[in-house]
Amino acid sequence: MDFSLTEEQSLIKGMVKEFVEQHVAPIAAEIDRDHRFPSESIKPMADLGLFGFCLPEKYGASNADAISYVLATEEIAKVSAAHAMIIGSQCSLTIPILLKYANDEIKDRLIPGMISGDKLGCFCLSEPGAGCDAASQQTTAVRKGDTYVINGSKLWITAAPAGSVFIVLAMTDKSQGVKGITAFLVEKGTPGITIGQPEEKMGMNGSETCAVDFCDCVIPASNLLGKEGQGFRIAMETLDSGRMSCAAISLGLAQSALDATVKYTKERIQFGKPIAANQGVQWMIADMATRVDCARMLVYRAAALKDAGEKFSKESAMAKLYCAETAMFVTHHAVQLHGGMGYTKSYPVERLFREAKLTEIFEGTSEIQRIVIAKHVLG
To answer: Residue limits of the Acyl-CoA oxidase/dehydrogenase middle domain (predicted)?
Structure first.
């Protein structure tokens, strides 16, 4: 297997790294501290093409491959996982659904603006009583003539206050369970949609997360995405890419924590020598580095399968599971090896540790990933 990058992939990685150093690093700690959405970053990220991975050039996208996408995501997440989440919401969760399931009028009207950063998309699946259990959805969509009327509440919606395009999963036939779930497009400004206040979270504070409520929200029937009853299938195939994106974010967090720890342990002098000279510290760093490299191979494999047009549900779940747990493992050791300084905001590992925890929860918990993997293995 050839693990070398193409010239284009190397160029993209370098461009993103330079962009992050210039535009993201200066505000990363501040947006976390102030719980502030980085609105000033949206247009520059879009101008660099970061909202156009794996999308057709006809809409203004770069059509860069999935490996380039995970490379870019890792580089961004090393400095700000919140920025990486915003990009993932566009490239993995919302634009691909419109591209595959919306009618031509919607695609031509919305996708170019989403790629250019003028419109942000939000994926609305989770509910207060329906996280991993999609069949427990309570949001409903009732057909009335040439419209649908949506009622219900969605939870944990990334970038909702800045969102313009909401992909909403709702029940059109509760008697059918998951086969009664349908996907819809709801646009900002539609009467009946209300955005809640941002949640007070442990980390990822630059990526606002809110509830979104629908009260007699009337949309045209042409906003149906796919067919009635296809919503669960649409959501699950979307999460394959979403989990790959989450894995790349986790990888970036882990690599950043490893890099910071290597630097710190070489500089920190105790008992007359750098703490990196102690065998116990070396073993911890060796374990951290090994897990990061294993995580990277799993992400790259999932991306390579996507680029080849192959199924990658199992591989995406494996990557998400392992990378998330690696992010927690590495950031935990990073804080420990920084000692008391690791528990302060003076060093980045404190923030990386808080951000890493979410990776074991969003886009399906680690427990759900194990269920997905086991189903593929056992048949």
So the answer is: 122-217
Higher pLDDT, 285 or 175: 285
What percentage of residues in the chain have a pLDDT greater than 70?
100
Domain count, the chain: 3
To the query of whether residue 363 is one of the catalytic residues in this protein, the response is: yes
Mean pLDDT over 247-274 rounds to 97
One domain for residues 179 and 289: no
Residue-number span of the structural domain to which 243 is assigned:
232-378
Q: Helices 279-307 and 231-267 meet at what angle, rounded to 10?
A: 150
Q: Are residues 133 and 108 in the same domain?
A: no
* One domain for residues 103 and 125: no
Length of the chain: 379
Residue 1 included in any domain: no
Q: Residue 312's closest CA among 301, 296, 323?
A: 301
Mean pLDDT on 105-124: 96
**Whether residue 148 sits in one domain with residue 88:** no
Whether 303 maps to a domain, the answer reads: yes
The sign one gets for the Cα dihedral 8, 14, 18, 19 is positive
Does the pLDDT value for residue 1 go beyond 80? no
Does residue 51 share a domain with residue 67?
yes
**How do residues 292-339 score in pLDDT, each as one tens digit?**
999 999 999 999 999 999 999 999 999 999 999 999 999 999 999 999
In a domain, 32, yes or no: yes
List 127, 208, 325, 363, catalytic entry:
363
